Amino acid sequence: MNIVFDIGDVLIAWQPERAFARHFPDEAAARAWLRSIDFFAWNYEFDRGRSFLEALAAAEAAHPGRTGPLEGYLAGFPETIRAPIAGTWALVDRLQARGLPLYAITNFAAETWPKALALHPRLGTVFRDVVVSGHERLVKPHAAIFELFLSRNRLAAEDCLFIDDNPANVEGARAVGMAAHHFTTPAALAAELERRGLI
Questions:
Q1: Direct distance between the N- and C-terminal alpha carbons of the chain, in angstroms, rounded to an integer
Q2: What number is the average pLDDT over the span 164-182?
Q3: N or C: which end of the chain has fewer CB within 10 A?
Q4: Are 100 and 76 in contact (CB under 8 A)?
Q5: In the prediction, which pLDDT does 146 show?
């Protein structure tokens, strides 16, 4: 079985409000501002391959006069992903020890992915392949990114188990024939891997 991981909020916690600490008195205020400018939809397009400069212009056009702090997002990005999810990494170690092939498919912007690799270098060494949405201009949960992954690695969908914290992405993987697990906690993932005889 090929084990295919999502990265954000599965292997490393993502807390985007932390990129804007100098603009807001507390993280609750930052989160409220993120909601007010529809940050997660904005970030989805960034992950899809929109350049940072294009993304800034689109945000300002949609929310004039309210998006200034976004200009510091790239510089502050490392603060958003500092925390590894240790329990999941422990499972990666166990899977690797059994010789199981490990891969990743991640919605990640081309301009932030190098920052993730610098902060968590193992992301660049533990997987046989990482499909990064911003490089491919394809995003989960659409079938095309899963199909690219399968064809690029010459894998059959039924031989893959995909792990993601987003239910829509889990359903996207299942739609192309992959087995999939909705990640909630490392303990729940461990139970699923044990049930399948993988650890």
A1: 11
A2: 98
A3: N
A4: no
A5: 98
Query: What integer pLDDT is reported at residue 25 of this predicted model?
Result: 83
- The answer on pLDDT for 141 being more than 90 is yes
Q: How far apart are CA 165 and CA 167, in angstroms?
A: 6
Q: Give the separation between CA 113 and CA 9, rounded to whole angstroms.
A: 15
How far, rounded to the nearest angstrom, does the alpha carbon of residue 83 sit from its chain's CA centroid?
A: 14
Query: Can you name the residues that pair with 104 across neighbouring β-strands?
Result: 5, 130
Alpha-carbon distances of 8 from 37, 44, 60, 106, rounded to whole Å: 21, 13, 26, 7
Compute φ and ψ for 144, nearest 5 degrees. Answer: -60, -35
In this predicted model, what pLDDT tens digit does every residue of 61-71 receive, in sequence order? Answer: 999 999 999 99
Spatial separation of the C-alpha atoms in residues 30 and 117, rounded to whole Å: 26
> 14 is written with which tokens?
């993502």
What is the reported pLDDT for 155?
98
